[in-house]
Amino acid sequence: MTPQTAAPEGTPIEPHPALDALIGVMSRLRGPGGCAWDAEQTHESLTPYLIEEAHELVDAIESGTRDDVLEELGDVLYQVLFHADLAATHESAPFTIDDVAARSMSKMVGRHPHVFGDVTADTAEEVSANWQRWKAQEKPARTSVLDGIPAGLPALARAEKVAGRATDLGVAPPEPSIAIDERMLVDEQALGTHLLALATTARARGLDAERALRTALRNHENVIRVTEAERRSGVVD
Q1: What is the value of pTM for the model shown?
Q2: Domain that holds residue 162
């Protein structure tokens, strides 16, 4: 199941004794004589903790200290190790943390041919322009630019993802019914204040801002998929 085990030539490899020790702690906790709670967990039962730890890391990055970030990164890492340890005990398709690391390494090497291969991409803009093409080569089964966007993302985060994919495809966003006040877009603080005011006003009028945005997103995604289908069939407006 491991796609690649050897690092590309020239890649620095350093020992990580603390990481190995943490893996050992996980093994002991889930092994005979360990923690009964840890031993009973499943991928499904751990999912809420993974989501919670990820959000706590975001909070630490946005408003915490360096020590907070250090701690929360450790909690997210532990969740990864926990899921990998669970996967290693699967009856028919086991994999280990080494398999996880090897798959990630293979993916990153494949998506950075400008570093590990002979492709030229000297600026961040050039890398971004090539990124989707490299991903598409890795995942030929995907038929839409929308494939791979997690369905569970909050509506606003999903909207940003969809907007980026739509722009790459050349599909314009829906026109708002009223003009957008440019003062809303001065900076993130101004934008955040207006978004909060909009959500608060919507709530006062009995409207669900999250559901409203999801509905608008579904409509926009339908337009994107129709456009893709037309281009595959050779239909041109």
Answers
A1: 0.70
A2: 155-233
